[in-house]
Amino acid sequence: MENNESLSKKEFAYIRQQEKLEAYIAVLEAKLANKDAEIAELSKKIEMLKIENEQLKADLEETTTECQLHVDNVETQNDDKEKENEEYKKRIEELESQFLPKKETEKKVERTLMDKIYNRKPKK
Predict the structure, then answer these.
(1) Which sign does the torsion angle of CA 37, 42, 47, 52 carry?
(2) What is the three-state SS of the chain?
(3) What's the pLDDT tens digit per position in 21-51?
(4) pLDDT per residue over 59-116, tens digit each?
(5) For residue 87, how many C-alpha atoms fall within 13 Å in the half-sphere facing its CB?
(6) pTM over 0.90, yes/no
(7) Which 8-state DSSP code applies to residue 119?
(8) Distance CA 38, CA 30 (A)
(9) Which of 122, 97, 119, 120 is nearest to 108 (CA)?
(10) In whole angstroms, what is the distance from residue 71 CA to residue 77 CA?
């Protein structure tokens, strides 16, 4: 009988240990389920961020293209203005070359007249 009693104690201890292991397995499975849910949520967030990143890349590319077009336009305008300024400078030089000799002649005539008025000898 003693043999039966000790066997049942061993069986009881074994059953108790099995229950503890099953409870521990259930806790681990719950933690695993939580981790799986967390992984699924993070995967969704990653996908959303990838989509947002692609949209931002497209926006950046579009903005960069627009900016480059604007820069090209401004550079073209600047080049046109520089050409226009060069043309104005040439025209000014032409006009100066036409009028400056006349001014020199006018100055000489004025000196001659002043010399005659004040009875001075003309400068050479």
Answers:
(1) positive
(2) CHHHHHHHHHHHHHHHHHHHHHHHHHHHHHHHHHHHHHHHHHHHHHHHHHHHHHHHHHHHHHHHHHHHHHHHHHHHHHHHHHHHHHHHHHHHHHHHHHHHHHHHHHHHHHHHHHHHHCCCCCCC
(3) 999 999 999 999 999 999 999 999 999 999 9
(4) 999 999 999 999 999 999 999 999 998 998 888 888 877 776 777 777 777 888 888 7
(5) 6
(6) no
(7) T
(8) 12
(9) 122
(10) 10
AA letter at 102: K
Q: How far is it, in rounded angstroms, from Cα 75 to Cα 32?
A: 62
The tokens for 78 are 């600047």
**Which two three-digit tokens encode residue 2?**
């003693």
Distance CA 37, CA 29 (A): 12
Tokens of 81: 């203005």
